[in-house]
Amino acid sequence: MRPSSLGVPLLLAGLVAATSLVHDRVDERRAALPPGHEVAVLPTPRTLEVMSLGYREAIADLVWVRALVFAGENLGHTDTVMVERYVWAISALAPRFHRPYLWGGITAIYGGAGKIDRTMVQSASRIYRAGLRRFPESHELLYAHGMLLTHQVGSTPGFSPAEKEALQAEGIELIRKAAAHGADPLVRRYAATLITEHATDQLAIQFLESQLVEAEDEAHRRLLRLKLGGLVGREGVERLERLREAFVAEQQRVAPYVPDSLYAVIRAEASPLSPAPGSSNDFGSGD
């Protein structure tokens, strides 16, 4: 006996309704979980590799997006363990993906509560060191790690005087390597100076400023603005944002075919002490 012609459509409609109901229930239960349960929904790197079915970089992109959302949702109380888990997962899937190492180091330090402790510094250092093993000539990672060791270690409780001295020496060398591997002119000028306690504070400001200029994700930019504002005040952050807008407008007018990062180097090398034609006097002052 042949089934009724209405049987199959009714069955499909029932399956769709059941799927929708289950999906809604899952969403409700996931929303009710505390932040700590984030660990349960990020598989291990090995599991992610198997699940990717060969599409490793596609899965890495998805995990990267989720990492950015996680940091934004937990701004001010980010779990450094989870930050590392995200970085290790992404790096296992896409070994040549550079940006997560920079994101991980910054987020481990500045994504948590106001007080930075030894655990956070060590987490950031592990991330930077892992990135430098893959990208030993990355001036961005060299500078970021150097800044962490020269500035943050000295002001973080839990490090002995001997550790501070050794790590500061390593940090100075990393900053000098960053200059040698193509860092921007500001870093090259800083690298030529022996870093004192006064200089490290200024370097911290310049480091956060450079990260804010380059950051594309709005949650990451909000985090950086918050930390930079604590050092230079809201007016300092607003001034930096205005300078960035003016720089982008100038780059689009003068050389829209050149990436802004390359244009910054060309512009600084061509005229380090005077502004480019038609630009604000704030550029090229060398300050």
Q: What would you note in describing this structure?
A:
This protein has 287 residues and is an all-alpha fold. The protein folds into three domains: 40-130, no CATH class; 136-215, no CATH class; 240-287, no CATH class. 70% of the residues lie in helices and 0% in strands. It contains twelve helices and no strands. It has helices spanning 7-32, 45-51, 56-73, 80-93, 99-110, 118-134, 139-152, 161-180, 185-191, 197-214, 218-254, 260-270. Helix 5 runs parallel beside helix 7 and helix 8 crosses helix 9. The longest helix has 37 residues, at 218-254. It is globular and about 75 Å long. It starts with 6 loop residues before the first helix and ends in a 17-residue tail after the last helix.
